[in-house]
Specification:
The chain is α+β, with helices and mostly antiparallel strands. It has nine helices and eight strands.
Length: 304
Amino acid sequence: VEELLSAGAPVAAHWIADRQSAPLILNYGTEAQRQFYLPRICRGELFFCIGMSEPGSGSDLASVRTRAERTAGGWRVNGQKIWTTGAMHCDYMIALLRTSGSAEDRHAGLSQLIIDLKAPGITIRPIVDLTGDAHFCEIFFEDVDLPADALIGAEGEGWKQVTAELAFERSGPERIYSSVVLLDAWVRHLQHIGRDDAAVRALVGDFTARLATLRAMSIACTARLAAGESPVVEASLVKDLGTAFEQQLPVAIGDDLAAHPDEPVSDELYRTLTYVTHVAPSFSLRGGTREILRGIIARGMGLR
């Protein structure tokens, strides 16, 4: 994933399975689930999306209301998910569902199930954003029947699983490299025009040092996750610092280009700057807002 992001390659369809769904199945799934899904994910044959957020249950994830009820043959799902990345391209969803109790029970009664998105009763609607892209979807479930073995791990274990899953998401390389293609294009521009003054050296050095530090933090979180730990606070720090870095890049690079209006700028750099500027505000919303992350960090440090 890191190499794909650094190269600016299209990764949206498969990286959630690579980064998040496969580790979850490996850690919590049955042997049959591992044998079926993991080889196909590795071969790029199956794409996964994440069914967490709902209308009214985004940052307050524990209040999800989409319900899975037991039936004679397995489970029946009714409800709605929203802001699901790439669902229209995916084969399966791992969904956080309420399998017992009520939304007021918070963490109790939450489980995760694997949902075949081609099952009857599922409607997927892409959401087009201001850039013209449709990365997100809303998904409706109406009497969707699932087999008994769709459950991941034990019933009622959903919150524990989601916490670990979000640590993978929040500490991953995409929380660092979303704007790196722009940084690379700008550095190539500086090299092409031969601008090498002290101010630009300091700016490039600052970005490079921060990127190296964030990468080391991300790798440290990955090592702890691989060891079976749950570095929730550390992962939140990576995402908070990483998204701040990603959002500051287009601002600083735009200011630099504006300060040198006589320099010739390639269409590629302008296109990249425009696109990253448009999407950068979303970086501190996806995968947990800045406010939510800082609350997690504060609790972990004993500050609240």
